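for ur thesis appendix - Lipoprotein. copy paste whatever u need, i formatted it the way the template wanted (i think)
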Amino acid sequence: MRLTAAAVALGTTLLTGCGSADAEAPSTSLPSATSAAPTTEALPVVGPADFPVLPEARTQDAAGAEAFLRYWIDLLNRQRAIPAGQPLRDLGPDCGECQRIAGAYDETAAAGERYEGGELELNDVTTPRLAEDTAAFGFGVRQEAVRLVDATGAVVDPGQELKTNAAGGIDLLWSASDRTWLVTSFGIG
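the 3d part is after this line
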C-alpha cells in the first residue's frame, strides 16, 4: 500500500511539473542545416562528360570491378559508333591494346569513315581475381559482324564476321586519385 501511494505521489508530481508555468516550451523550429549529417564527397568525373563512369563501377571491390568491365564494353560500343578514341586513352593509359583501338577510331574519323556493326555484348564473366589494387577477369563476348565504310557507304574493309562467343580478358588497376578502375590490359581473341 505504501509503495502504491508513493508511486501515485511521484507520478502526480511529475505530471504537474510538465504543466507548470516555469517549464520550457517545446521548440517550434527545426535544427539548422549545419547540424545535418555530412554529405558524401562527390566523385571526380571520369570518362566522357556525357557518359561518365557510373558510381557502382567506382568501388574497389569485385562488384565495382565487374561494373567497370560492363561500363568499358558499353564505352567501346559508344566510341566505335562516334568514332573517337580519347576516352579509351584516358581510362587505359597503360594499356597497349586500348591505345591501338583508340588510334584506329581516331584514324577512321580523320578519314571520314565509320564502322558498321561490331557491337559487343558480354555473354559471361568470370569472378574477378582481386589482389590489393588489381582485378583480372576472363569473359565471353558476342561481337556482331563489323565492316568499315566511307562517307558514301562504300565498303573500305569487309572487317570480321559475327563471333558468338569470343574469349576475352581484362586487367584493371585501382586509381586512388581518380577513385576508379583503369584498364592495364584488354583483349578479345
